[in-house]
What does this fold into?
Amino acid sequence: MKKGPVIAIDGPGGVGKSTVSQRVAESLGFRYINTGAMYRAFALAAKASWVDFKDDLNLQDYCRGIEIDYSMETGRITIDGTDYTDSIRTDRAGELASKVSTKPSVRACLSAHQRVLGEEGRVVIEGRDIGTIIFPDADVKIFLDATHEVRAKRRHLELVNGGHEASAVSSTLEERDKRDSERKEAPLKMADDAVLVDTSELTLDEVVQKVLKIVNERLKVGDTGR
Ligand code: DC
It folds into this structure.
C-alpha cells in the first residue's frame, strides 16, 4: 500500500527521463527512484559473476541471492557491497540492461524491490513499465517522448559529457528501443491514463515546467506537503 503520492515517469531511452525526473522530484521535495539504474547495476553484477543471461533459472537464483541497496537519498546503488553508481552510465551497461530486462525472473525480482521503495510515497519513479506494471495506481503518470533523432542527439551528448565512448549511438538506441518495446514481459508502453509529453521541441526547463504543471493539477491539495 502506498503511504503517499507516487509520480510515474516512463519513456524510451535518450528522452531525458532521469534529468527531468530528478528535477521534478527536487522541486516537489519528493525522493527519486531510477529503475533503469537497477537493471544496469544488476546486469553488470551478473556479468561479473559469469551468470548466463540465457538461463532464466540461473538469473533467478542469482537475483534472489544478492543484496541490492538503492539509496533514495543519494541515488547510489550497490550490489553485495560493490558500488556500481559510477559504472552504470556506459553504453555497454545500457545494452546489457536492455538484454537482461527481457527475462521474466529478473523483472519479477527487481520489480518487487522497486515497489517496496516506491510504496514509501512522495516519490518520483522513472522507467519503462512504472505506470503500466509497477504502480498502475500511481497518482500521476507521465510518458515522455521525442523523435528518434532528438533522442539520439541527447544520448550522444550525455555519453560524451560523462566522458564515455559514444559511437553508433543512433543504431544502438534504435535496436534497444525495439527490444524494450517488443519484449513479452512488461514492454515499454504508455499507460492508458498517462499524459503524453512530446519533448522534441522543448528545452529541459520547459519539460520540467510542463511536468510540474501536470503534477500540480492532478495531485490533491496537501499531497505535496507544502
Ligand atoms: O532507463 P535506462 O536507459 O537506464 O534503462 C536501461 C534498460 O533497462 C532499458 O533499455 C530497459 C531496462 N529497463 C526496464 O526494462 N524497465 C525499467 N523500468 C527500467 C529500465
